[in-house]
Amino acid sequence: MALVVVDPLRRFTVKGAPFEVDGAESIVNGINELANHFRQNSLPVIWVSRLIRPQLSLGTRTSAKYKGMNAAFTGEWAEMDHRLEIKPEDYVIFKPRHSSFHDTDLEIILRENGVKETWLCGFTFNVCVLATAFDAVAKDFKVKFVVDLCGTLPSKFDEKTVDSASIHEYTKIISDYAVGEMIASHDAAKILAQSSSGISN
């Protein structure tokens, strides 16, 4: 198993940030705790950050939706949250698109560590976390979503705003049916201990 933390970036986690997620501080604290559980069980922790390359666009749909908001994707807002407890033994990778697998070494890291199952958390559940999950399944990795450590933003569709809680629930339904299992962070220590005793990756 490996923990993959997707886009724990300041634009989502800091108060007053361009895309501030409700409850982000609690999510950050929970991610730190979960990462410690993985390390204690000698399992890899992988931090993934979105890197906007100057010569590339944000992606066609992202560019269209957030035209004129490039500042939200660069500078201090593009940094990982400073409260994250990233350790020397952890992996840190950078991705140019939504999925953590696209144009990165994530699959290589997972294969070299003998990983068969990925635990996903981070920001945002319905975009980059879900995109990563779809690619993980396509590459025959099992997926678990640590749902209370996945942040979600509200979304506007057909002139109506759908609140973040509803988006979160919709994403859970879609993901549980087609992608992976939903788990809660408070169950993590028990699950990891049981898996480690069975030498399961």
Give an overview in words:
The protein has a single domain (2-197), classed as Rossmann fold, CATH 3.40.50.850. The protein is α/β, with parallel strands linked by helices. It has seven helices and eight strands; from the N terminus they run E-H-H-E-H-E-H-E-H-E-E-E-H-E-H. It has helices spanning 10-13, 24-40, 60-65, 106-112, 125-138, 164-178, 188-197; strands spanning 2-6, 45-50, 91-95, 117-123, 142-151, 155-157, 160-162, 181-183. The longest helix is centred in the N-terminal third of the chain and has 17 residues, at 24-40. The protein starts with a strand and ends with a helix. The strands form two sheets. The chain has a six-stranded parallel beta sheet, sandwiched between helices.
Question: Brief overview, please?
Answer:
Keywords: Hydrolase. It contains 7 helices and 8 strands; from the N terminus they run βααβαβαβαβββαβα.
Low-confidence stretches: none
SSE order: EHHEHEHEHEEEHEH
Q: Which structural class is indicated by helix and strand composition?
A: alpha/beta
Rg over CA atoms, rounded to whole Å, is 16 Å
What form results from the Cα inertia axes? globular
CATH topology: Rossmann fold
Query: What characterizes the major β-sheet?
Result: 6 strands, parallel
User: How much helix, percentage-wise, in residues?
Assistant: 25-40%
How much strand content do the residues show? Answer: 15-25%
CATH-level-2 architecture: 3-Layer(aba) Sandwich
* Average of per-residue pLDDT values: 90
Provide a count of the helices. 7
Could you tell me the number of beta strands? 8
Sheet with the most strands: spatial strand order: 3-2-1-4-5-8
Instruction: Give the class-level CATH name.
Output: Alpha Beta
- Give the domain tally: 1
Distance between the termini: 4 Å
The H-level CATH homologous superfamily, spelled out, is Isochorismatase-like
